[in-house]
Design goal:
The complex is a heterodimer of chains A (183) and B (350).
Chain A: H1 2-14, H2 19-27, H3 62-66, E1 101-103, E2 113-118, E3 122-127, E4 130-132, H4 134-149, E5 155-158, E6 163-167, H5 171-181
Antiparallel strand pairs in A: 1-4, 2-3, 3-6, 5-6
Helix pairs in contact in A: 1-2
Chain B: H1 8-14, H2 27-30, H3 33-54, H4 77-89, E1 105-107, E2 120-125, E3 136-140, H5 142-145, H6 151-163, E4 167-168, E5 217-218, H7 225-241, E6 245-248, H8 258-267, E7 274-278, H9 284-291, E8 296-300, H10 306-311, E9 314-318, H11 319-331
Parallel strand pairs in B: 1-3, 2-6, 6-9, 7-8, 7-9
Antiparallel strand pairs in B: 2-3, 4-5
Helix pairs in contact in B: 3-4, 3-8, 6-7, 8-9
Classes of the chains: A alpha+beta (183), B alpha/beta (350).
Chain lengths: 183, 350
């Protein structure tokens, strides 16, 4: 600390020889740590020029972010000129058929018939989302499958959850049958 | 429906004079109405005066009320005339300077109904006067207020709510952690006693516990989001179907007296405990009134949960709360699976 003060004083005395000479004499000691300089003072604030608009926060470009955010809801299917569509989809009948039961579509607008396999060999056909008189649907489905398969398949009805399980792999036929009914 | 061969007229003819009429299901609701009216009448005039004095500076003027329009009560008309006589005894013009909505208050579902289902309905009531029980009709979406009564889901969600927060802090020491027991207490053979290796084995008094609770145990688990949503819908359905759900247009009260709220709940036979739900801001009067009450609870709509709905006897929803719940709960029926958590921004999150 004293050495630095002394160096500073020496530099100031030698500054009379010439500004560059004094600085070179003080700072050119080999191996010495650099003299810490005080941080440069900020320039004094000048008043803004007339016509300078200042800083403006703009959210106009956020539209480019918003258009990338995905939707959360499954959209309603658009109207097609003819049904079934090329992928084989048919909308539900509007108004709903006048039957004692009703089978709702899934959230992706498909007929809720699924295949369940247990132990690799036990195949079931499951019809979900049934509302109304589920036993009437079960009777009609039994009759239809008896006519198709030659014998009545075993079925299980769960009134509380609105599901119907049929033993056997009939999901394509049941789906077509429900579509033909208008669900 | 009575069993085959028994007619209601035969049952009535066979009844002894003076015995209660049990042929009508809601008969027990008709008779006590007279007593309930006696309950309210002495205090109503005092509150009305207090409310009028306090609200004298309020802007709204009392409107003359026509007789409540709507279908008469299912029990015998005798109770309706008694109620009307009692209502006339408490003059309505004295009771309030609170602003009232245009009657009748009708609320339609904002979300499209499925084509094969009709909406569930509830009377719109009000807390401004003890007789404001039929100001209008509210349509309630059937996919929220009339779902299948899945008691198994209700149980699962209620148990989840109870257990997922549980951390059991029980911990006992094993034979390795109990102090001591490093040395074999006596030699293996020749002493005549059983062979023992340590005085802290689980067989010993003071020894470690073999299969005891070990450390803080967490019972955290999450049910799928759609199961929890279904639990809320089933609870709302059960409340509506068991006549424990009441829809109120807003929570404005004439006074901040907790006793008013208690006696209103008692007069309207709301049960031992009432859960009142509004969306965000609640008027000061009801906040101050419910603050000191244990059996009447005020919660925001975001705090609605299956346990609270089952714990409280009656659920009171405002029209705003009904709209909020319908919007939030019906969104789950038509949404995609999340690409990323729903806490991050989506374009049309409800």
């Amino acid at each position: 600390m004293a050495a630095l003060v002394a160096a500073g004083a020496l530099g100031r005395r030698l500054a009379g020889l010439g500004r560059a000479g004094g600085r070179r004499l003080v700072q050119s000691r080999p191996g010495a740590p650099p003299v810490p300089e005080s941080p440069p003072e900020p320039p004094p604030e000048t008043p803004p020029e007339p016509g300078y608009p200042g800083v403006v926060e703009s959210t106009a470009e956020y539209a480019f972010v918003e258009r990338l955010l995905p939707p959360t809801r499954v959209p309603d299917p658009p109207r097609h000129p003819s049904y079934p569509t090329p992928s084989g989809w048919t909308p539900p009948q509007d108004p709903p058929p006048a039957l004692p039961y009703f089978v709702r579509r899934s959230r992706l607008h498909n007929v809720p018939v699924y295949r369940d396999v247990t132990n690799g060999n036990r195949e079931l056909t499951v019809v979900r989302k049934i509302e109304g008189d589920i036993w009437a649907l079960e009777g009609e489905l039994r009759a239809f499958l008896a006519q198709r398969a030659g014998r009545e398949p075993r079925t299980q009805v769960n009134e509380l959850t609105g599901t119907l399980r049929v033993k056997g792999r009939f999901d394509g036929e049941v789906r077509a049958w429900l579509l033909q009914k208008g669900f | 429906m009575t069993s085959s061969g028994t007619r209601r007229e035969d049952v009535i003819a066979a009844r002894r004079p003076g015995s209660p009429d049990r042929t009508r299901p809601a008969a027990h609701r008709a008779a006590p109405r007279r007593a309930a009216v006696m309950l309210a009448r002495p205090r109503a005039a005092a509150w009305a005066r207090a409310a009028a004095a306090a609200a004298a500076a309020a802007a709204a003027a009392a409107r003359a009320l026509s007789a409540p329009a709507g279908p008469p009560d299912s029990p015998a008309p005798a109770s309706a005339t008694t109620a009307a006589a009692a209502a006339a005894a408490v003059p309505r013009s004295e009771k309030l300077f609170l602003e009232r909505p245009r009657l009748p208050v009708l609320r339609a579902c904002s979300t499209a109904l499925p084509p094969h289902r009709a909406p569930a309905q509830a009377w719109v009531e009000s807390l401004r006067h003890h007789d404001d029980t039929r100001l209008g009709l509210a349509d309630l979406h059937p996919d929220v207020f009339a779902v299948n009564p899945r008691l198994d889901i209700l149980h699962a969600v209620a148990m989840w709510q109870k257990n997922f927060k549980r951390i059991s802090y029980a911990k006992v020491k094993t034979r390795a952690e109990v102090r001591g027991g490093g040395r074999k207490p006596w030699r293996q053979k020749g002493t005549g006693r059983s062979r023992q290796g340590s005085i802290r084995s689980p067989l010993w008094r003071g020894g470690g516990i073999a299969h005891g609770p070990r450390g803080p145990t967490s019972y955290f688990y999450m049910l799928p989001m759609k199961v929890r949503v279904m639990g809320l819908k089933v609870a709302l359905t059960v409340k509506l179907m068991q006549d424990d759900l009441h829809v109120v247009d807003c929570l404005e009260m004439p006074t901040a007296d907790p006793q008013y709220l208690l006696e209103l709940a008692r007069y309207r036979r709301w049960g031992q405990s009432v859960l009142i739900v509004d969306v965000n801001e609640m008027p000061e009067n009801i906040e101050n009134a419910a603050a000191s009450l244990k059996t009447i609870t005020l919660i925001p709509a975001l705090g609605l949960n299956v346990h609270s709905m089952l714990k409280h006897h009656t659920l009171v929803l405002t029209l705003d709360a009904v709209a909020f719940l319908e919007k939030k709960l019906l969104w789950h029926d038509t949404r995609y699976s999340p690409l990323y958590p729903f806490s991050m921004p989506y374009s049309d999150f409800p």
